[in-house]
Amino acid sequence: MKAQKKRWFPVDFCNSRPAPDKPNNGPPLKEKWKQLLPLGNRKLRNKERVWVALYRYTAPAKWQGCTDRDDDEITPASLDPDERKYAWALLVGPKEDAIDPSLAVQGRRIQVVEDPYNARWQLEGLMQNNIRNTGPDMLVRVLVGKIVDKPRFGAAVYATPVGEDDPAYRNMWWVFEALERLREGGGVREGVVGEGARLEWMQVAMVVKSLYEKRAAAGIFDKKYDANTPKPAFDLMKERWIFEG
Hints:
InterPro entries: DUF6914. By secondary structure, the protein is α+β, with helices and mostly antiparallel strands. It is built from 6 helices and 7 strands; from the N terminus they run αβααββββαααββ. Strands 4-3-2-1-5-6-7 form a 7-stranded mixed sheet. A hairpin with a 4-residue loop joins strand 3 and strand 4 (120-128).
């Protein structure tokens, strides 16, 4: 009996379709692509969702309190001041409509982060115990699409370039480019994301910041932080609040 060839990811990666044989020279995105594996295998009607999340920017610990670090030198004055206040990320997780609001929802946060030790930007995709509230710096999240073809979604997102050695780079730019790749690459037309996805960056960014400002004006961020309370969440596809906070 002929021995079965080893495969470089499980056959149930997406809808139990056979996985390709491991190539002699694995693609450079293989390890990043595999980071999506724990997201699971769900039926089409329960397609995973992709969110754009806004965070309060916090400098890496190594830079906090540094007197020789001048942000005006690192960030050109021509940049939008908001880029110094906020950090951006993509969140990927299951459909939440039928999930008790008090329960945690596991998912993945994909973002570009600063590595102060190597003075460069790097892409990371880490599992989160609860994407409804990933920590005190999280402000709001906005639902922008449903993932139909997870392997192709992962390939597009993880292939988005990172300005590794550019000190003026910001993670907002990476989120912008990731959404543009999905949109211009025929994300809806080619079946990567579902119908009704809202991937236009200018609109998404405007809605995200507007929602945060409205909730901030209502004083919800002045309350004592509670890890069990979901952060404000808005469905941009249906244009309705999921959780106002």
